[in-house]
Amino acid sequence: MIKVRQKPPKRQAESTISLINIVFLMLIFFLIAGQLAPPVDPDVTLAETTEAPPLAPPDALFADSEGRLSHRGQPVEIAAYLAALGAESPVGGEAAPAPGLVPGEDAGTGGPAVLLAVDRDLDAARMLEIADQLYRAGAGKVSLVTRGAE
Description:
27% of the residues lie in helices and 15% in strands. The protein is α/β, with parallel strands linked by helices. The strands form two sheets. A five-stranded mixed β-sheet has the order 4-3-2-5-6. A two-stranded parallel sheet has the order 1-7. The longest helix is centred in the N-terminal third of the chain and has 17 residues, at 17-33. The protein is elongated and about 105 Å long.
């Protein structure tokens, strides 16, 4: 008996459609979930510094040029802001040290650490008044947020 060798079946060309779909879904996911830091208040123009370490825009308490306070785009009073920071701070156990200051983190003085981002046109006396009010309301540490000079 003569055996006739059959050709192996041709492999179908692999479709790249599934790869394109996966990449597209990943793109959509990262566009939606990609906001890592809250946006800076558009009404506040930060002061510039030349030797500050670069950090992402913070989840800070913003003071505009008139001295009005806002947090995450909403007007806020100092007591309510500190209460919200206290509620967001980690409870129980010690957290790993983070580079820089994290809002709400216990500053080692019994109160939450506050990042204060003031408009560069805000009067210095008003800025000091806000910082004093924060300390009196129970803030452990108040750090001023600036942006690096370009």
